[in-house]
Every structure is written in structure tokens, then in C-alpha cells.
Amino acid sequence: xxxxxxxxxxxxxxxxxxxxxxxxxxxxxxxxxxxxxxxxxxxxxxxxxxxxxxxxxxxxxxxxxxxxxxxxxxxxxxxxxxxxxxxxxxxxxxxxxxxxxxxxxxxxxxxxxxxxxxxxxxxxxxxxxxxxxxxxxxxxxxxxxxxxxxxxxxxxxxxxxxxxxxxxxxxxxxxxxxxxxxxxxxxxxxxxxxxxxxxxxxxxxxxxxxxxxxxxxxxxxxxxxxxxxxxxxxxxxxxxxxxxxxxxxxxxxxxxxxxxxxxxxxxxxxxxxxxxxxxxxxxxxxxxxxxxxxxxxxxxxxxxxxxxxxxxxxxxxxxxxxxxxxxxxxxxxxxxxxxxxxxxxxxxxxxxxxxxxxxxxxxxxxxxxxxxxxxxxxxxxxxxxxxxxxxxxxxxxxxxxxxxxxxxxxxxxxxxxxxxxxxxxxxxxxxxxxxxxxxxxxxxxxxxxxxxxxxxxxxxxxxxxxxxxxxxxxxxxxxxxxxxxxxxxxxxxxxxxxxxxxxxxxxxxxxxxxxxxxxxxxxxxxxxxxxxxxxxxxxxxxxxxxxxxxxxxxxxxxx
Length: 559
Prior knowledge:
This protein has 559 residues and is α+β, with helices and mostly antiparallel strands. It is built from twelve helices and 22 strands.
């Protein structure tokens, strides 16, 4: 609200504005205190939320680490990557194998055809499929929701009959419905809706039938009525065809390649397509070839050049003979990777504990209250910044909720055990992870790199169990402890974006706002009352001055 323009002291010579402002400063003290209280509550809420975000990151870190791949990381090597490469999986043993020879790499079935139109002329990209000797496509469309007018898509071929069946697959009498060729719509002659589940069968477009797996079913590839050879190639490259197609426009040849390798992957067309592609009717399906190789003296065949041997993914890259020398593949525990995975979690845990320690031990400067508006107006930006650094410090000093969360998290490390025959790997401190003897660090973990790596080398399974066992694993305990701590803090301080009514501090600040608004309304009334009183005084003094002037003139005239 815009303040009115006032001119005070014209009659009395008194600076009424200054007097009223000074009076109002005294009257504003309760409001200033409430605003300071709200500011402290906001700072405390933000401090809680900072811890809550760190706890969420810690919880997520625990959940991410729980996967077995983090504890069974493997490193692998090949003595000749150009001939054979290898990638070890988490379940690979610490082993070595020899690929002694590769007599044949797996290949895919390929076929080159020369499509022609109905006149026997080689096709081009723009040749209409309708001008080729391809089979007409039968469309079967089902109506999902009842409707007055059912528009068929794709549109039936001109002059074709549309046959309908009901939801139970019984034919619908042709005299009970009408198909309009001009609009492509089906309507019921009695004016009722076309029922849900109705199926329309009709001819539209063209199709190719292709089989890509020996003994498999033919797949139907359909194109529209106006499709060109280019559109047909696009359809052949679709995900359901099982092949890749490439049309070379100068020669008019179409190259077809099976997407899978091996002798069971084939390219075979139906009789109509064979005719259009100038493939002799008796031509056998084109087949791929299996890979043939020898592993540690054992002959093997596989449909792919990428095979799994002893849980290692092996990729054959070239043919070679025994005389050219074997390729040795090895897999071993990736101690460094597993160590880094664990260390990453420990670092996140220690960051969270550091933050919580800082908050509960931070010095509180009670003489530095939040600045009022009037005080801020008198200070520079740098002075305000330095003051507020002191005022914001110690918001959670000695906080019982944060201390309890720290104690709980610390306890999870010391209480974690695992059933094992190795008495030297039953607890986390035995593998190099301990909370140390210094309780003032709030539960930070001390990591002994040498000891942890030795434990990983010795028995990665036992390390995995210490962290992930469903009954006593550390990660599940940390996850649950972090979740519980977050719930306690969220009830008090909410989360980023929470509405004020959903957490206790938000409700408290809303109540403070209400009280501030009520007091501000009273202050406006109080200020107006002061101005009215001073205005009345000015008016009375103005009248007195006028009377004095009149008397002075009267007395001067009488003399």
C-alpha cells in the first residue's frame, strides 16, 4: 500500500515525521523479534535439508553398491586382440584358455536379386509396387471401441469387398452394414454403432513373405497401395523382417543380408516373391555359416562370432591356423576396481558424517541475531555477509536428531558380521574398514587400502557377503538407517519444494507470518493515530497563531 504524503510541523516547527518514526521503531520491536525468529527457523530448516540431501545421496550410494557386479569385477586380456578379444563377466573364474585356431568365422546368409516389373523391366527406386508381380496384402483390422462410423485404415482397394466378423468371430451379414468407397467408412444400416471387437477383412496394398530362421514361420512385410520400390526397401529393413536390404539403383539389384549369422539363419521367400525377384522356384534358401574353432584342444562350432566360454565373452575376429600360434585369453579378479567401488561408498559415507559433525559442533554466536530491515539498510553488502555468517552459525549445534543419526550409522559398521569359516574375515574391521578409536570423528571410516585389497584378493565372495548379506549386510543397514534419519528430519524440516503445512517448521513459520501480518496491521493503525494526534496539535497551534495575530493587529490599531 502506498504511504500518503504528509507535511508536518508547519505550524509548530516540530519535526513530527522524525518523532513518529522514532516512536514506531519502539512499536516495531515485537515485529522485528518475530521476523528474526522466522529467519532463524528458515536457517535451521535449510541446515536440516542440507543433511537430508546428503543422507539421500548416501542411501542411493548404498543401493547402487549392492549389485554383485561391484564386488565381482573382472579384468581380462588377450594375447592378440586383432585375432580374438575377450571381456570377462562378474561370474568368470580366475582362469586362462587358449584359442588354438579359427578355421571359419560365422557369416550371415546373403542374396542378391534383380526385381522386375510386370513387363520384365528392371525396377528403379520410383517403380510402383503395384506394377510388380507381388502378392496383394490382406488386411485384418479390429475395432477397439464402438462407433457410428468406422474409418478403415489402410483404405481398402477400389472395388474390393469388406467382410465383417463380430467379437466372437462370427460373420456379420453383408446386408446389415454398408462400406462407402469414397469415404472409407463402415456404418450399420439400422443406425446403431459398429460394435466393439468387430473385425474387418479386405485387400489393400502388397506384401512379401520371408523366412529368416530355418524351420521358422514366414513373416509378412506389407506396403501400401501407392508404395514404391524405395518404400519396399524401407519395409524390408524393418525390425520384424530379420534382414537388412540395400537397393543399388544403377544396376537395379537388391542386396539382402540376414541380421543373424550361422547356418540356421536363412533367407527364403514365398513363391510369389520369388517370381517378382526372378528367383527360380526350386532355389534352396540361402544360408549362413557357423564359426568353427578349437579351444584347449576341443573343436567347437557356434552360430555367432561372439561366444561365451567359461563365463567370458569371446569375440572371434579373424581366421588363423594352429601353426600361426594360439591366442591366450585370461580373466582375473579386478581388485583395483572392486576397491574403488567400495572406497567410493566409504567416501560418500564420510562426507555425510563430516557434514553432520560440522553442523552439531558449529559455534553458535548468540550475540549475532538476524539483522532487521532497518539494520540492513545501515550496513554495506560485505558487512551484511560477515554478520550473517556469524548469525547462521550453529543452527544445529548439539541437535539430538542429527547426533542420534550419527550414532546409528556408526553402530552399523561395528555390528556387521558374516558367517564364514575364516575367522579373520568375519567383521569389517578385519578387512580394513573401521570406525577407529577416536569417537570425536563422529563415526568416520578409516580405510586401510592394503588390508582391503588383500581381503578382496583372498575371498571376494566373503567381502561381498559382509556388504550385502540379506540378514546382516552393511549396505542394507546403512540404507535403512539413512532412510529412517531422513524420515525424522523430513517430518520437522520437509524436503526441497515441500508445502509449509506438511512439516512442523513450515507450520511454525506460517503461524509466525500470521502474527506478523496482524501486528503490521496494528502498527499501521498506531502510526495513523500518531499522525492524527500531531495533526490535531498542528491545527490547534495554527488556530492559536491566527488568534494571536488578530489580537496583535487589534491592539496595534487601537493605539
